[in-house]
Design brief:
Bound molecules: adenosine-3',5'-cyclic-monophosphate
Shape: globular
Number of helices: 7
Radius of gyration: 15 Å
Strand order of the largest sheet: 2-3-1-4
Strand content: 15-25%
Distance between the termini: 20 Å
């Protein structure tokens, strides 16, 4: 079954949106298979956002994501990568549809509440960066 990496960013944690965000994905029908509240080190932030290292906002991005705790999650389900991206809304909250997470709760592109993997390759890479295999659960009965 497909998995994706989602993360409530420091602004979402500070604004007490963890429960609301988890609830949306639960109600949609996806399964939470891993979760942790954590502080991101500068090294992890730089690795996670490596593809943006040449962008002018890279320093700001690293400063922001390390500014407070994040809630890192792995979700599982049919087409979860694309569906979660649609539920999050466009990266720029001004373009995110009302009803989406960013459309409902964010104003600034730098503080856009949630991150989600954009492809199967990113999902595998990001899950591996944030979680050990044994930190993910299975809903199948253990034998
Ligand atoms: P995210 O999906 O976490 O991946 C990269 C992040 O870069 C993106 O969300 C935005 O929060 C951030 N970002 C994109 N464009 C800008 C920008 N112009 N200024 C600051 N941050 C940006």
């Amino acid at each position: 079954m497909e998995k994706t990496f989602l993360m409530v960013k420091p602004d979402g944690v500070q604004r007490a949106l963890i429960g609301e965000i988890v609830s949306r994905f639960e109600k949609k029908g996806f399964q939470l298979v891993g979760a942790k509240l954590m502080n991101i080190s500068e090294d992890l932030a730089k690795e996670h956002y490596g593809e943006h290292k040449e962008r002018p906002f890279f320093g700001e991005l690293v400063d922001f994501i390390t500014s407070g705790p994040v809630f890192a999650m792995v979700w599982e389900g049919k087409d979860v990568i694309l569906t979660a991206r649609n539920m999050m809304g466009k990266t720029n909250p001004a373009e995110a549809a009302p009803g989406s997470i960013r459309g409902d709760y964010a104003v600034q592109v730098s503080n856009n509440i949630i991150h989600g993997s954009d492809s199967a390759e990113s999902a595998e890479r990001e899950i591996g960066l944030f979680f050990k295999e044994e930190e993910l659960v299975s809903y199948d009965k253990a034998v």
